[in-house]
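Dear U.,

For the methods section draft, I wanted the exact inputs and outputs in one place so we can describe them consistently. I've listed the two proteins in the order they'll appear in the manuscript figures. Please don't edit the token lines directly; just add comments below if something needs changing.

First protein:
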Amino acid sequence: MVLCICRAVTERQLEAAIVGGAHTLSEIAERLGAGSDCGCCRDEIEERLESSAGSCGRGCDGCPRTSAGVTSAA
């Protein structure tokens, strides 16, 4: 499904960018363009970033994807 109409970015592309290391809306916009035009998709992108927080399993110190107080097992 298309998530960003302005840049024709799909949910799969967004998920791939997150898995590939995009941790912020700015990084998503830089990689895919999503969220950089009208802004209608920004809330959805932010929700996806938050829901994937800490899910990579790497447990890097200071990772913006790790929720406060939540760390992954190394």
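Second protein (the one for the lower panel):
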Amino acid sequence: MARRIGRRPLFFGFAALVCLVLVPATPPDVRWVAWVTAGLGAFWAILLAIEDLAVQVPKRERRFRPGSQTPFGPPPPPDFRRD
């Protein structure tokens, strides 16, 4: 079964890269903020990637015949009785 990494780890990894790119443009007295946010982004990206790889996603069951055009059955016949 192929395992997939979702959007959340990719988002946090990209955010960490953006923070690392901004480190040289940050004033020296607050440069620690860029390093901390890059570290937090990398931390969450790694943890979420581990979670995505560790959790087994069950295969979806087909609830209809493979040759049919729709997953729904035929409609019931109309009821012409008058009460």
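Candidate sentences for the figure legend, describing the second protein: The two ends are 57 Å apart (CA to CA). Residues 7-54 form one domain.

Thanks,
Y.
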